[in-house]
Amino acid sequence: MPSALISLPLRYMHTTVEMVHKEDVDNVIRLIYETLLNIEAGQDFRTFSN
User: Fold this and answer.
1) Backbone dihedral angles phi then psi of residue 23, each to the nearest 5 degrees
2) DSSP annotation of 1
3) Burial level of 28, CB count in 10 A (0-12/13-18/19+)?
4) Could you read off the pLDDT of 1-50 as tens digits, one per residue?
5) DSSP 3-50
6) pLDDT tens across 32-43, in order?
7) Spatial distance between the Cα atoms of 9 and 32, rounded to a whole number of angstroms
8) Which residue, among 3, 45, 8, 11, has the nearest Cα to 29 in the 3D structure?
C-alpha cells in the first residue's frame, strides 16, 4: 500500500501551547488535495519497477 509522510512545521509539540502558522496548515491541506486530484487509476507508485 503506497504511503507518504507530510510534515507540518510547529513549535512546542505535545504541550498545551502547541503553535502552527495557519498558512502552513492551509498549504498542507492544499498539497494533499492537489496530490489526490492528480492520482490516476492504476498508477504505479513503486520507486523501482521490476
Assistant:
1) -60, -40
2) -
3) middle
4) 778 899 999 999 999 999 999 999 999 999 999 999 999 998 888 877 66
5) --------BSTTSTT-B--HHHHHHHHHHHHHHHHTPPTT----SS--
6) 999 999 999 988
7) 16
8) 8
Enumerate long-range contacts of 3-9, CB under 8 Å, 24 or more apart.
6/31, 6/32
Query: Do the beta carbons of residue 8 and residue 24 sit within 8 Å?
Result: yes
Say which residues have a Cβ less than 8 Å from residue 21's Cβ, sequence separation at least 6.
Answer: 9
Domain ranges of the chain: 8-37
43 grid coordinates: 498508477
